[in-house]
Amino acid sequence: MRICIGMRGLSLFFAALADENRLRLLYLMKEGEICVCYLQGVLQTNQPKISRHLAYLKRAGLVEARRDGKWMHYRLKNMERSQQKVLSETLRRLEMESAIQKDTQRLRQIQCRPSRYGISSVEPKREECRI
């Protein structure tokens, strides 16, 4: 199935890539689905700001979301091959950026603390984050 993207879609796609915070979020999602709590912890900013950027990425067709109770999980969306090439190359070039390297290290160190919210202390996987 071929998906045709018009001028509006391309404009949204490239505008989404034109923001450092959104690039950081996309890089964090490149390995798979991730809970918003991790994104918030890595970028060290508030949830509303993260949500605004994620909504922008969703409108641009780059990410999709899955709700699990009150937690949202985001992942990169399957997209047209030409867009995928641009995104892959963009993310590859980000690897050497110091902010991205710090984000990657911070991601490895973040641990959800579900007990803060009255949830049992079962050790969650990254994809099953409960904050």
What are the main properties of this structure?
Arc Repressor Mutant, subunit A; 3-stranded antiparallel beta sheet; 6 helices; mainly alpha; globular; disordered C terminus; 131 residues; 3 strands
Protein model, in words:
The chain has one domain: Arc Repressor Mutant, subunit A (Orthogonal Bundle), CATH 1.10.10.10. The chain has 6 helices and 3 strands. The radius of gyration is 15 Å and the shape is globular. 51% of the residues lie in helices and 11% in strands. With 131 residues, the chain is mainly alpha-helical. Strands 1-3-2 form a 3-stranded antiparallel beta sheet. The N and C termini lie far apart (38 Å). β2 and β3 form a beta hairpin.
Given helix and strand content, the structural type is mainly alpha
Radius of gyration: 15 Å
Question: Mind summarizing the main beta sheet?
Answer: 3 strands, antiparallel
Compressed to H and E, one letter per element, the order equals HHEHHEEHH
- Whole-number count of domains: 1
Quaternary structure classification? single chain
Identify the CATH homologous superfamily.
Winged helix-like DNA-binding domain superfamily/Winged helix DNA-binding domain
Largest beta sheet: strand ordering: 1-3-2
Shape: globular
Mean pLDDT across every amino acid position = 84
